[in-house]
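Annual report, structural modelling task.

Input specification for the arginine complex:
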Amino acid sequence: MKRGFLLLLVLVTAVFRSYADEGMWLPQLLGRQVYNDMVKKGLKLSKEQLYSINKNSLKDAIIIFGGGCTGEIVSAEGLIFTNHHCGYDAIAGASTVDHNFLRDGFYARNRGEEIKTSLSVQFLLRIEDVTKEVMAALGPLSGKERAGKQTEVLAAINKRMSNAAKSIETRVSPLFKGNQYLAFVYERYHDIRLVGTPPEAVGKFGGDTDNWEWPRHTGDFSIFRVYANKQNQPAAYDPANVPLKPKWYLPVSLKGVKEGDFAMIWGYPGGTNRYESSYGIKLATNVNNPALVTLRDVRLKYMFEQMKKDPAIKLKLASSYAGIANYWKFFDGETRQLLKYDVYGQKKAAEDRFNAWAKGKSEYEHVFADWAKAYDAWRPYAKARVYLNEGIMGSPLIDFAASLIPLRNALVTEAAKEELAKIVEGAVAAREAFLKEEDKPSDQNILAAVVRMFYENVDKSQQPAAFYDGLQSKYGSLSEGDTYKKYAADVFANTLVFDDARWKSFTEKPDLKALDADPAFALAGAFIRNYQERVGPKYQEFTAKNSDYGRLYLKGVMAMDPDKAKMMYPDATFTMRVSYGQVKAYKPRDAVFYDYVTTAKGILEKYKPGDYEYDLPKKQIELLKKKDFGQYADPVRKDLVVDFITSNDITGGNSGSPVINGRGELIGLAFDGNYEALSHKLAFDKDLNRTINVDIRYVLWCIDKLGGATNIINELKLVR
Ligand code: ARG
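The model returned the following structure:
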C-alpha cells in the first residue's frame, strides 16, 4: 500500500516534470500545484503578492503596451520599460531627418523634454468568469449560427461591463477554444510619452539577420511614461497632465543571472494553437506559410531598394518594413521546424489516441472525420485568401483604397448626412496617415508584382476574370511583366488619392461615380468583390466548423484524462499570463552548445563598420573597448552581459515583458524567441524552446554610460 502510494507519487511528479517550463498560466487562477512548483524552483513571493483581488500586487505593474506588446511600470512616477521594437513606430514617428531619434537615440533630461505619442496602455483591473452566461446563450448551437451568436453575446457583455467615460474597457476572451469564457476588465490611459530610446544600431543590432535567433547582442528596449490627470485618472493628452502614481512598480536587480536561476515572465502572449489538428499543420506547411513568405519576399525587396537610398524614405518605411520582415522570417522558420520535427506526425499520433478513446462516444467519435471534410472543402481556396491579404492588400495604396468601401456603401444606401460626414472625416484622417508613410516608387513596383503573382498562382476560377480581361485588352499580354508595370504606373498617375485638389473636391462632395472610376479603388473593389463571391463564404463556413471541432477535441482531451486536465493552461489569447522557467543553455543541434549569456565581447565581434545591421555608434565602441562597464559589469564573466536565454514559454505579444526573479525584481526584458523553436505556436518543444531577453544591466548601461541619462537611473529602485 505504502509502496504503491510512493510509486504513484513518483509517477505524478514524472508526468508533471515533463510539462514543467511549458505553460502560459492565468495568474488569477494559478493552481496550487503550479504555484508550489514555482516555489520549488525559486519563487519567494506569496500568491497574494503576485495577484490579489483586494490589494495592490505585482500584476498591477504589467500593462498592455500599444496595440500588441507588453510593458511594465518601473518607477513610482509611471515610467515604462518595453522593447525597442515595440516603441519603434512611435520613435520613427517622432523622428525627422534632422532630429533622427531612430538613428541617433534620444533621452529626455527632464519631464518637459518627453515627447507626445499616439500610444495608449491598458492596466488589467479584474477578471470575471462569464462562462455560464455565454454557454446558456449558445446552448447546442453549432457552425455559423454558433459563431454569430457568440459574437453577439460577447459584444453585449463587453458593452455592459465597459464605461467609456471612465476609460474602462472589457473584452471577453474564449479560453480552451470556447470551453471557458473570461471577461477581462481594463483601464486605458491615453497620454503616453516617449522618454528614451537607444540608437537603432543598439536597439535593433543584428537586424533581420539576427532576428529570431540566438546568440543575440541586441539592446531591445525603449522607455515611455504614463500620464494622468490631477486625480490620477486616464485623460487625453494635455500638457498639464502629471505622471501616473502607479499601484505597483518593479524594483530593478543589479545582481545578474546564472544558470538555473528562477525566471518568470509576465505579459500578453498573443496567440498559440497547441491543439491544432494535423490537417491544420499540413495546410500551414503546404499552402499558407509558403504563400505568405513568397509574397512578403517581394514586398520587402521593393521596400528595401528604396529605404537604403534615402534616410527620409527609410524613416517612412522602417516601421512597416520591420513588421513585415518579422513575420516573414517567423513563418519561413515555422514551416522549417514543423517539418523538421514532424509536428504533423506528433499531432497525428495524439489524434489516433483520441480516436481510440472516442470510439462509441457519440459526442466525440465523429469529430475527426468531420474535421477532415471541413478541411477538404476549404483547402482549395486557402491560397486565394493569402494572395488577397498578403498580396493585393500588400500594396499600401490598395489597402488604403479598400478602406474607402464603407464610404461607397454609405453613398449607395444614401446614408444620412451626419453619418456620411463622419465617414468622410474618417477617410480624410486615414489618407493623412497613409500619405505619411507612403513611398510611391516601392508601392508601384509592389502593385505590379502582386497583380501578376495573383494571376499566375491563384486558381483561375477564383480570379476576378473581368478585371484581368480588361487589363489584357488595355495593356497587353498577361504573361508579360511590362503589362503589369504599365498598368501600375497608370493607377499611380491617375488615382485621386495622391491629388490634393481632386481629393479635396471629392471629399467636399462625395460622388459614387467618381469613386468607382478611380483606378486604385476599382482595383481594390474588383479583388474584394471577387473574394466575397468566391472565397469568403467558404472561409466563414470553414472557420465556424474548425472552431466547433477544435472545441470538441479539446473538451474530449480534458475528459479523457481529468488529472492532466487540471494541469492544462489555455492557449494564448492576448490575455495576461505568467510563464516560469529558468536561465538555461541549450544544444541547438548535434555537437553545438549555446551558452546562456552573450557579452560585450560578442558585440565587438559582430561589429561591421557601415553595415546596415551591424554598425555601431562610435561612443559604444570606445566604451566597450575601454571596458567601461561601471556597476553594470558581471562579476563572474568580467564583462558586460548583453542578452540571456531562459526556458520560458512565451510568444509574440510578450514582447517587452519583464523577466522577474524569485523576489519580484526585474532582471531583463523578453524580446524574442529562438529559431529552433519557431514551431512554438503549434507545438512546444521542451528541449529547444528558449526565450531571448536583454539583461537589465545592459539596458541600464546603455541609458547611463552610452546615453548619459542618469536622471532615468535615479528614478529606479535599484537592488544590489
Ligand atoms: N522577433 C521579435 C518579436 O516578434 C521582433 C524583433 C524585431 N526586430 C527585427 N529585426 N525585426 O518579438
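DSSP finds 28 helices and 20 strands in the chain.
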